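The following block was generated as part of the benchmark described in Methods. Ligand: zinc ion.
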Amino acid sequence: MAPGFRESPVTAEFSSRKPMNQPTHPASAAPTRLPPVATLDIKFFWDACDREELVAERCGECHKFRFPPRPMCPHCHSLKREHVKLSGRGKVYSWIRPQHPMPVGFAQPPVVALIELDEGFRLVSNLEGVAFEDVRPGMAVEVGFAPTMKNRKVPVFRPVQGA
Ligand SMILES: [Zn+2]
């Protein structure tokens, strides 16, 4: 456990929920997604994705989320930071399907979505398990993890069944 890590109320509240972790490709097919580019400030995020955990950085003083992660809190200017596990749940805020140029590593154009996380900030990700035409604003989604080249994983979101 990293110094400064604290169990958050969010973690406790959602710890019983299991995100969907099924791979999006058959095991025999090598992943074609590009791996994440991990700079020092965001290495913790991608390392957690490899463990199939969605995490974020919070200020160690005022406990507001810092997203994207950065060295100094924009609210109180503290350099303290803590990493907390998120619920992995959210709602679709907006979405597009890029057509040209064709995104590298995808057989079909992916749905790129802005997900409003339950924790109150937004994350750009891909939406899977739903046709582009069936995506609706406010659709409840939960995180899963898709394999990439170089044996890494990236978060993707899928509709919550029965929501
Ligand atoms: Zn702060």
